[in-house]
Amino acid sequence: MADDADVIVVGGGLAGLVAATEIADAGKHVIVVDQEGEQSLGGQAFWSFGGLFLVDSPEQRRLGIKDSHDLALQDWMASAGFDRDEDLWPKRWAEAYVAFAATEKRNWLRAMGHRIFPIVGWAERGGYDAMSHGNSVPRFHVTWGTGPGIVEPFERRAREAEANGNLTFRFRHRVDALSITNGAVDGVSGVILEPSNVERGKSSSRHVIGEFTLRAQAVIVASGGIGGNHDVVRKNWPRRLGEPPGHLISGVPEHVDGRMIGITEAAGARLINRDRMWHYVEGIRNWSPIWPRHGIRILPGPSPMWFDAKGKRLPSPLFPGSDTLGQLQYIMGTGYDYSWFVLTQSIIKKEFALSGSEQNPDLTGKSWRMTAKRATSKAAPAPVETFKTHGADFIVRDNLEALVSAMNALAGDNLLQVEHLKAQIEARDREITNPYVKDTQVMNIHNARRYIGDRLIRTAKPHRILDPAHGPLIAVKLNILTRKTLGGFETDLNSRVFGQHGQIMPGLYAVGEAAGFGGGGMHGYRSLEGTFLGGCLFSGRNAGRAAAKAVA
Ligand SMILES: Cc1cc2nc3c(=O)[nH]c(=O)nc-3n(C[C@H](O)[C@H](O)[C@H](O)COP(=O)(O)OP(=O)(O)OC[C@H]3O[C@@H](n4cnc5c(N)ncnc54)[C@H](O)[C@@H]3O)c2cc1C
Question: Under DSSP, is residue 74 helix (H, G, I), strand (E, B) or coil?
C-alpha cells in the first residue's frame, strides 16, 4: 500500500507544529492530524503566557542580571532531583535543553520574527539554599504577543508548507490506534468527528461521522498531557504530595485528555515518571469560563500573606512565587485543598498577573501604551480588576473583621478566627519599618526590590497590610489547578521512543508534553518555569529533523 505521507504528526499543538515544519522544510511530506477543528490550531500554547526560560540573554544582561550556563544547570539539577534508573534519558535531555536555552534558542526564534518583552520575570525563586530548588536569578522571558506570539512563527511556516504541498492538515481526525508492521510503526487509524465551529478552546462534539487510516514511514506523537482529565490526574497522583485533592479546577482545555498517551502505551511505548506532574496552588475560578472547570493561575509577586484553610501562615520559604510543589505538598498536608492570600490594593495593583494570553490584552495585543500602564496606573491591570469584581474567589473589604467573616462565609466551614489572623498580620507589619528584618518573607521583598525588573512592575513598596492608606483589604481563595504533565514517553535525544523492553520502536517519535517535554521527563520533579513551551520547541525540533533524515 502506498504511503499517504513521509511522516504523520498526531497533534497540532506547539510541539507538533514545530516538528511538522522542520519536516516540511526538509522537503518531506507531513500530515498533521488533530481531533480539534482548525480554529484550535496551536493547542495549549495559544492560551499560554508565552514565558520562556532563557539563560544569559541580552534582556537579562541589560537589567544587570549575571546568569550563566553553569548557574542555570546547577538550578535545573537541584530542582529536578533526578533519582531513578529511568532518569537516564530525562537527565540527558535536561543537560541538552539547558545548553539550548543558553545558546541557540533565542536566535533561532528571533530569526523567525519572535520578540521578547524587555523585563525578565523571576519565577520559582526557591528560598532554601544554592543547591536546592529554584531560579537563582530572573529567567522568565515573556513573549511579546504572549501565547499567540509563540505559535505565530510556526503556524506561518506550516501555512507556507501547506501552500507548497509539503504539509497537509487533517482536522477533526481523532487517532484511536497506531499501526505496526514487522515491528515498525507505520501509520495511524481513527475516526472523523463531525465538523465543529465552537470557539477556540471550547469543548467540541465527539460525534463520529467516519473512519480513516493513514500510512507513513514514521509517526510523531505530539498529543499533549493529561491536565484536562482529572480522573487520570487523580489516578497518577503521587502519594508524596498527600491525598489527591477533592476539588480541582482545570488550567487546560478539555482536549488535554491524555487519551493518546494510553493508545501509544498500548502499542508498546514505555511511559515513565507518570507520577510527576506540575499543578498550581494559586488557581482561581474563571468568572467567564472558556473550557469546563476553567481556572486561571495567579502569577503572584512576593508580598501577599499566605494562610492555610485554618488561618495559619504558610511556613518559610513557602511564600508566593517560591516553590510550587512545596506549597502543594504543604497545603495537601493540612487536610484541606485550598488556601488564602491576604493582601492590599497596593499589592494587587503591582503584583498580580494572571497566566494566560486572554488575561493579558496589553502584552498579547503588543500594545506598548497599555503595557506601560502596569508601571504607572493606580489600578491593577483591567483583567485583574475585573476578577476582583466578578471572580467568585475574591473578597474586598475595608477592615479585617469584615474580610474574615466573608472568607468564612465563602469557604462555608468557619475555620478562620479574626484574632488569629490579626496577630500574624500585625506581627509581620511591625517588621516593615526597617530594611533589615527577621521575617523571611519581608527579607524576600527587600531582596526582590533590589532587582530593577521587580521594583518597576512586580514588587509593591513595603507597607503595613493593615494600613488603610493601602486598602481596601483583599482576600483570594486559592484552588488547586491542574496544568502540566512532567512524565511521558521515554525517548533518546532524537525523540525516538523506547519500547517496554528498552528497545527503540522503529518509526515512533514523541514530543512536547506527551514526552515529558523530552526524554520522558526532563524536569525531573520540579520546573524552573517557562520550560514547557521551550521543551515543545526543543523536542519538536529534534524529532522533526531526525524523522526527516530517517525517512527515505
Ligand atoms: C493558560 C496556560 C498558560 C501557560 N503558560 C506557559 C508559559 O508561560 N510558559 C511555558 O513554558 N508553558 C506554559 N504553558 C504550558 C504549555 O503551553 C504547554 O505545556 C504546551 O503548549 C503543550 O504543547 P503540546 O504541543 O505538547 O500539547 P497541546 O498543546 O496539548 O497539543 C496537543 C494537540 O494534540 C491533539 N490531540 C490529542 N490527542 C489526539 C488524538 N488522539 N488524535 C488527534 N489529535 C489529538 C489535541 O487536540 C491538541 O491540539 C501554559 C499552558 C496554559 C494552558
Answer: helix
Q: Is the pTM of this model over 0.70?
A: yes
Q: Which amino acid is at 524?
A: G
Protein residue closest via CA to atom 31 of ligand 1: 13
The β-bridge relationship of strands 277-285 and 140-142 is unpaired
User: Does residue 523's CB lie within 6 angstroms of at least one atom of ligand 1?
Assistant: no
Our answer on whether the CB atom of 459 is closer than 6 Å to any ligand 1 atom is no
Cα 6 to middle of ligand 1, angstroms: 24
Cβ-count burial of 85 within 10 angstroms (0-12 exposed, 13-18 middle, 19+ buried)?
exposed
Would you say the CB of residue 517 lies under 6 angstroms from ligand 1?
no
Angle between helices 104-111 and 532-550 in degrees, nearest 10: 80
CB 315 within 8 A of CB 294: no
**484 within ligand 1 shell (Cβ under 6 A):** yes
Is the Cβ atom of 201 under 6 angstroms away from ligand 1? Answer: no
Residue 496 and residue 219: Cα distance in Å, rounded? Answer: 10
Distance CA(248)–CA(231), nearest Å, equals 11
Give residue 13 CA to ligand 1 midpoint distance, Å: 6
Query: Ligand 1: distance of its center to the CA of 43 in Å?
Result: 5
Nearest to 292 by CA among 151, 409, 198, 197: 198
Cell of 293: 472547570
pLDDT block averages, 10 residues each, the chain of length 552:
94 98 98 98 98 98 98 98 98 98 98 97 96 98 98 98 98 98 97 97 97 98 98 96 95 97 98 97 97 96 98 98 97 97 96 93 90 82 93 98 98 96 98 95 97 95 97 98 97 98 97 98 98 98 98 87
Distance CA 98, CA 373 (A): 34
Query: Which one of 204, 223, 232, 364 would you pick to mutate in the ligand 1 pocket, going by the greatest count of ligand atoms within 8 A of its CB?
Result: 223
Sign for the pseudo-dihedral over CA of 215, 21, 277, 38: negative
Shortest-distance atom of ligand 1 to CA 511: 26
SS3 state of residue 361: helix
Q: How far is ligand 1, taken at its centre, from the CA of residue 531, in Å?
A: 13
- Nearest Cα to Cα of residue 341 among 527, 465, 460: 465
The answer, yes or no, to whether any atom of ligand 1 lies below 6 A from the CB of 345, is no
**Pocket of ligand 1 contains residue 46 by CB under 6 Å:** no
**Kind and range of the H or E run holding 78:** helix 69-80
Q: What is d(CA 400, CA 237) in angstroms, rounded to the nearest whole number?
A: 37
Q: What residues are paired with 509 via a beta bridge?
A: 220, 496
8 Å CB contact between 226 and 278: no
Establish whether residue 513 lines the binding site of ligand 1, counting it when its CB lies within 6 angstroms of any ligand atom: yes
